[in-house]
TrEMBL record:
A GO CC term attached to the entry: plasma membrane
Domain DUF4131: start-end pairs: 20-188
Membrane topology: Multi-pass membrane protein
Segments crossing the lipid bilayer: 27-45, 57-76, 248-268, 280-302, 322-342, 349-369, 381-406, 418-444, 482-500
Primary localization: membrane
Source organism of this protein record: Pelolinea submarina
Keyword Cell membrane: yes
Protein name, UniProt field: Competence protein ComEC
Entry superkingdom: Bacteria
NCBIfam families documented for this protein: ComEC_N-term
Keyword field contains Transferase: no
Subcellular location(s) per record: Cell membrane
Amino acid sequence: MPLFWLCLSFTAGIFVAALLPLSAWTWLAIAVILLVAAWLEGHFCSHRTHPLLSRPLFQIPIALIGACLALGGWRFQSAQPHISADDLAWYADGESRVITARIVSYPEESANSTRAVLQAISLYQEGQEKPVRGNLDLRLPGGFHISYGDVLRLEGSLNAVLDDGQPAFQSYLARDGILSRMYYPQVDTLAYGSGSIFMRWIYQVRDRAQDIIFDQIPFPESSLLSGILLGIDWEIPDYLEEAYRSCGVLHIIAISGYNIALISGLIIRLTRRFLSPGKAGAAAILTIAVYTLFVGAEPAVVRAAIMGSLSIPAHYFGRKVIPLHSLVVVAAIMLAGSPMLLWNIGFQLSFLACLGLITMVDPIQQWLYHFIEKKFSEGTALWWQPIIILVVSTLVAQFSVSPVLLNLNPVISIHTLAANLALLPIQPMLMGLGGMAVIFSFILPPVGKFFSYMVWPFLAYNNRVAVHFGFQPKGEFQVSSVFIWLSLAAVISALTVFTIHQMSALKQPKTEQSRNPNTVIT
């Protein structure tokens, strides 16, 4: 429990540091002073003199909580970019530059453009080659084929990602450590296939999987499966992407912790009815691991997979640590490694979706189960239980991430709820059949083709539902900032109530829990 509060304090410190213009050394000095105060407080102050101060939060020295907050502030400030003459961004002044760089991401190739992230090697200046460091965002015309590991010589206008005085956390590129960009330069390929052998193999498997999907499944259903299963969503037609966006189900295509958490939560709650708890948890973790490799093991997907795995009840493996604590601790560890993640949309969706699934799903679905059992019969409740799990998981995940989605796009579709209920419950089946179609196509092509036939109706159903709801006249309306703040307040209130409920359940004595079979620790 103390680690839970200390991690929360560290995370809060990162947020506070973005608002207070204090230097890293100032935050570090505050942390040292408070650590000394915490040592003194722990040795000379009693925390059990009053019932209020005997609560778990106050069993930790208050100064130690403040020290963790200051350490969060120090970590945020120390992660701010400091550009020197050895950095590529030093020369990003809009002038024409000649640089050599290596492709370090999976290139996104579409009909309109090709995008990749490159790691700078050298820059030509005054006839001399100067070693430089830093990452570069590269855009090329559509149809321009490049591959991971290629070494390119680029000549074009080199621009900075950040404006003068702009904080790094406000730019999605700067948050990922990309401080320079070059759009549509002249390109010469100097070498092929360098870089990590493992990542080259991963991307080759990904390319082969995409070829299998497009060979065996008609378009545009093939593009949808490629987006869902492999994260290659730039082949989806514009009209279809707009349909998914309009009816509020675009998150089905975009890989994030939201759908990974939802899938893991659904798998664990459905498989535990047929498998032992340990095997059910292992099945969910294995599914997430395979999925992560399929989409290329990109850093954002790996983070989402780790967060999504935390929606699996830890007590299935005999541990006394609940996923709520694990979620907060792992989030703090991720933020310690990269404080800018706090403003990353994928991280926010991952955390909120996992938190909602961990704290809210089981109490709600058990209440509904007992309600149906009381009103009708136990057999009726058992028959409805899988449907209850699917619907509750869908609604909880959608509710938990609603403030983030509304902040991104302040539009509500009156068809969003219906579209989500119609589509999300079939996603585990769609991903399972699609995954087996690809896997078996590598080893037993006829079996893989059979699964391709099996998954096509689900893909076609997805597209038909999205088009039906997405192009309904007068189907969406703008919401004000007040509504977004109200939705945030509602989500925070609900998560707080269910979190307190879960913590209270943990503190029940074992004898009381054994007498109360409805006690849920997830």
